[in-house]
Amino acid sequence: MKPLFALIIVLFVCLTSFAQKPRIIILATGGTIAGEGASADRAAYTAGKVPIKSLLAAVPGIEKIADITGEQIANVGSQDMTIEIWMKLNKRINEIFTNNEAEGIVITHGTDTQEETAYFLNLTVRHDKPVVLTGSMRPSTAISADGPKNLYDAVTVAASPKSNGRGVLVVFNESIFDGRDVVKGNTTKVDAFSSPNLGPLGQVYDGKVIYYLNAVRAANKATPFDIKGLTTLPKVGIAYMDADADGGVVAHFVKEGYKGIIIAGVGNGNFNKAFYDAIDAAVKKGVIVVRSSHVGSGRVTLYDEVDDKTLGTLVSDDLNPQKARLLLMLGLTQTSNKDILQSYFFKY
Ligand code: ASP
């Protein structure tokens, strides 16, 4: 009798655990997905108005995928994203996974700086469980608002065990991107996100998640960047170089005490003589200067047209200027040794 009783208990536990839905916590930060306008077109809306509760109410069937709870971390247009909000997000994510509060996290976020938040979190969150960002191009009050579908898809991806160990992800318009390579590549279209160097990692379609690629660097959780206890990060500025630019912006950053400068150069991180002289002066003052590019895809390579050894510059590899800035800000919390900083750009 006893073994039969034990078998029944085991079967009961198995069945109930199979029936259990994954727990997903949505951390809302604002953006157009929470935007509200007076009319059904997109004109004159304000980002970051609608609370997470109302966003969820607009997604029929989402409760069938997961047990969802929402928390409002901020409610801003992502042009107003700050290091302080990033720190808050990082802290809450680490807390959720350390305390086993959820199987996955979705972050609703404006699209303007979503690629930056995704990479920042990718560099600073140590857990392997899914963290998925999403947003929308049309406000919640617009015709064919894309937010509800993106939110549904993001929850589907975050609830899938297939998403474990892939780093921070961005889900948009049925594509799954890795948070390191993803960029906002269009100012207004619904299909605004792309991954210029890799392509999407996978797709979410009809409620099913499928992966084609594994982004090795994005999935590397062994980063040295522990921001616990920090309230801010070293200042790093981006200097945009175009034809006949003067080097004034570089000199300005040096004067203002910036610890690092990212050059949004032309081509393979190139610049003219005026920039060269300003960079030379910056490096001689101990400022870390990293060559990146505003081309939009591809790598910036050492010792090509620029003699990095003589000038004392580093390169961003395939990180665009805004992502290179994040890595340098975090890198400078660890070291100002140029070899180590350069190794970060080849690793993370
Ligand atoms: N400016 C908005 C934001 O980034 C745009 C959007 O979400 O699509 O918050």
Automatic annotation (TrEMBL):
<dbReference type="Pfam" id="PF17763">
    <property type="entry name" value="Asparaginase_C"/>
</dbReference>
<dbReference type="InterPro" id="IPR037152">
    <property type="entry name" value="L-asparaginase_N_sf"/>
</dbReference>
<dbReference type="InterPro" id="IPR027473">
    <property type="entry name" value="L-asparaginase_C"/>
</dbReference>
<dbReference type="InterPro" id="IPR020827">
    <property type="entry name" value="Asparaginase/glutaminase_AS1"/>
</dbReference>
<feature type="binding site">
    <location>
        <position position="78"/>
    </location>
    <ligand>
        <name>substrate</name>
    </ligand>
</feature>
<dbReference type="InterPro" id="IPR006034">
    <property type="entry name" value="Asparaginase/glutaminase-like"/>
</dbReference>
<feature type="active site" description="O-isoaspartyl threonine intermediate">
    <location>
        <position position="32"/>
    </location>
</feature>
<protein>
    <submittedName>
        <fullName>Asparaginase</fullName>
    </submittedName>
</protein>
<feature type="domain" description="Asparaginase/glutaminase C-terminal">
    <location>
        <begin position="235"/>
        <end position="345"/>
    </location>
</feature>
<feature type="active site">
    <location>
        <position position="32"/>
    </location>
</feature>
<comment type="similarity">
    <text>Belongs to the asparaginase 1 family.</text>
</comment>
<feature type="binding site">
    <location>
        <begin position="111"/>
        <end position="112"/>
    </location>
    <ligand>
        <name>substrate</name>
    </ligand>
</feature>
<dbReference type="InterPro" id="IPR040919">
    <property type="entry name" value="Asparaginase_C"/>
</dbReference>
<dbReference type="InterPro" id="IPR027474">
    <property type="entry name" value="L-asparaginase_N"/>
</dbReference>
<dbReference type="Pfam" id="PF00710">
    <property type="entry name" value="Asparaginase"/>
</dbReference>
<dbReference type="InterPro" id="IPR004550">
    <property type="entry name" value="AsnASE_II"/>
</dbReference>
<keyword id="KW-0378">Hydrolase</keyword>
<dbReference type="InterPro" id="IPR036152">
    <property type="entry name" value="Asp/glu_Ase-like_sf"/>
</dbReference>
<feature type="domain" description="L-asparaginase N-terminal">
    <location>
        <begin position="23"/>
        <end position="215"/>
    </location>
</feature>
<dbReference type="GO" id="GO:0004067">
    <property type="term" value="F:asparaginase activity"/>
</dbReference>
<dbReference type="GO" id="GO:0006528">
    <property type="term" value="P:asparagine metabolic process"/>
</dbReference>
